[in-house]
Amino acid sequence: MGEMIEFPVSGGSIDGYEAVPQQGGGPGVVVIQEWWGLVDHIKDICDRFAAAGFVALAPDLFHGKTTRSPDEAGKMMMALRIDEAEKELEGAVEYLLKHDAVTSNKIGVVGFCMGGALSLYTATKNPNVGASVVFYGGHPNVKPDLPNLHAPVLGLYAEKDGFVTPQSVRELESKLNALGKTFDAHIYPGTDHAFFNDSRPEVYNEEAAADAWQRTTDFLHKHLGEELVKHGSV
Predict the structure, then answer these.
(1) pLDDT tens digit string along 46-79?
(2) Which residues, 6+ apart, have CB-to-CB distance to 99 below 8 Å?
(3) Distance CA 118, CA 205 (A)
(4) Where exactly are the structural domains of the chain?
(5) Which residues are within 8 A (CB) of 106 and not within 5 positions of it... i.e. 6 or more apart?
(6) What is the sign of the dihedral through the CA atoms of 51, 114, 93 and 187?
(7) Fold of 3-224
(8) How many other C-beta atoms lie within 10 A of the C-beta of residue 143?
(9) Between 82-97 and 114-125, two packed helices, what is the crossing angle to 10 degrees?
(10) How much is the CA Rg of the chain, to the nearest whole Å?
């Protein structure tokens, strides 16, 4: 359904995977990769968003590098320059805002693991972000400016996650509640980190993934606008 494109960022350009709804238009969503890179799973998520009525773009934050090795993925994640990633995500948001098929006045950001941390981070940096979805988001070098959070946040987490623990989720929830921010957190019982990743059967949980997907699309439609443009319709 989607295709690789090149879009402008500050000081240059970057590749990304773009998927547009068959009906022609919908709210814009930036999909932020896990530490594996811009792999087929992330592209498939963009296609799923397009099928659900969104214009989705996944920027290639690792610039062509992908891996299946956790050790290598960890090294690539730690080597990521957060300031550079911020500029590239800002470029992705700006690209979608100018996209002919995008019907929303603001853009959603949805991230997984490393990308989940960047989703929340971007929502504290960019006022054009209208909704943030965090799937078990964590990165030791990403420090969101929580008082400056611009958007409501949906957090989706795993009970058996040793990386992003339920305790850390509750601590984040307490901080955001104290700041008066909108944070809707769900911790799925009996699930592992990356339970949404259906390319990893050792951690994938079909029931939790289905519920998380429904919550995600409902949340984004609610905060980015329910009405979708259907080109050619009477």
Answers:
(1) 999 999 999 999 999 999 999 999 999 999 999 9
(2) 28, 55
(3) 23
(4) 3-224
(5) 97, 128, 129, 130, 131, 151, 224
(6) positive
(7) Rossmann fold (3.40.50)
(8) 11
(9) 70
(10) 16
Half-sphere exposure of 179 (CA within 13 A, CB side): 18
- Residue 218, amino acid: D
Q: Where in the sequence numbering do the catalytic residues fall?
A: 113, 161, 193
Give the model confidence (pLDDT) of 196-226 as tens digits.
Answer: 999 999 999 999 999 999 999 999 999 998 4
- Total residues belonging to the chain: 234
12-19 and 26-32 beta bridge pairing: unpaired
Q: What is the mean pLDDT of each run of 10 residues along the chain (234 residues)?
A: 94 96 94 97 98 97 96 96 96 98 97 98 98 95 94 98 96 97 98 97 98 98 67 30
């500050």: which residue's tokens? 10
Q: Exposed (0-12), middle (13-18) or buried (19+): which is 111, by Cβ within 10 Å?
A: buried
Q: Can you give the chain as a three-state secondary structure string?
A: CCEEEEEEECCEEEEEEEECCCCECEEEEEEECCCCCCCHHHHHHHHHHHHCCCEEEEECCCCCCCCCCHHHHHHHHHHCCHHHHHHHHHHHHHHHHCCCCEEEEEEEEEEECHHHHHHHHHHHHCCCEEEEEEECCCCCCCCCCHHHCCCCEEEEEECCCCCCCHHHHHHHHHHHHHCCCCEEEEEECCCCCCCCCCCCCCCCCHHHHHHHHHHHHHHHHHHHCCCCCECCCC
Task: Give every strand in the sheet of 12-19, ordered side by side.
Answer: 3-9, 12-19, 55-59, 26-32, 102-112, 129-135, 153-158, 183-188
